[in-house]
Amino acid sequence: MKSMYKLKYIPVIFFAVTVSYGVNGQSSFVDYQKSFAKVADVFQRKEDTLRRQFEVKGLKWPAKYVYLRSFKYDSQLEVWVKNSIHEPYKLFKTFKVCAMAGSLGPKRMQGDYQVPEGFYYITEFKPNSAYHLSLGLNYPNASDKLLSDSLYPGGDIFIHGSCVTEGCIPITNDQIEDLYVITSYARAMGQDYIPVHIFPVQFNNPRSLDYLERYLKIYRNYKPLANNLEIAYNYFEKYKQVPIVMVGNNGQYLVEDLRPVEQKIVKERKPLVEKTVPIPENELAKVVNSLPVYPGGIKAFQHFLDETGKELVPYLEKGQRAAYLTVDYIIDKEGKPVYARVVKGGNEDINEIVEEKFEKMPQWKPALRQDQPVAFRLKQTLVVESNPGS
After folding, report:
1. pLDDT at residue 12 tops 90
2. How far, CA to CA in Å, does 357 sit from each of 15, 52, 73, 316, 338?
3. Domain edge (last residue) among 222, 238, 266
4. pTM here?
């Protein structure tokens, strides 16, 4: 079979560094967060206030899509929201980043105290953080892996409370509570990749831009990254839509200059093969007491994912280093995997093989609700990555 997709770069919007294995149901994610006493208290205190603040600004609560922009020199974190993929983002709030580590420029190694610069997304909601609440980012992303220290690039980059930092993005406890609630709802309604773009400066601020220009005269190697970040910034300023960003073989970002209507076609590609759902939607459990369990547990499931990823490397397009897939599947009440679909990433050959492999997984221990087995939908990230040295 010949693939119909010819990609030369890796879309940043689909980057997935860690494999998730947890609550992925649209209504259950918020319920899962509320199972932590601290988070339940935050939702109880914050939700009505946030709803009113949205109404005052003419915004629909809760937001289905969230986009975050952070500016290092300006010490700001912007929260943009919308409820339809077609509409432009609107600014909800600007938070003050209350502590700063490092200087302008990207993070390149563990212990450099640098805040990363580039294009990231939220990978982790951490209710029991030492910094009140935390939202983890996917540093190092594909660009960082190519350009940073190969052995010790660093990690554990969060947006968090407590106003202290060693390379993260700290805001006040009150602000992280607002952000945690807003992003939890977006995640629950299906925004698997909540983008977080980190810029050196606000490029429309003359004072900030002047500082950056003086900085670039000293650190000239930083200019290509700064230029690409400015292109992405200007794109969003023009269209109020998140740009598609790719990573080349040299690790440099490439911002596609697509109009929003063209971008929508790229982002919303349908699965290549439509299937009939064998279980009616109203028979799928939204909230369960225990999740489905792969035979042998999480480590065994991780081994299955790793082996599947290795087997699929020969099916990557010519010149393609990696593919990042999102697989939607159901574990029925008997524990049988059914209705596997690749909903993001891949190509015709890869998607067909992945769907077949997921449906042929061994029988799981089904999800339980009130001690009764129930059908439950899961989403899973799968990484297909060739050996950089091959």
Report:
1. no
2. 22, 47, 48, 17, 11
3. 266
4. 0.64
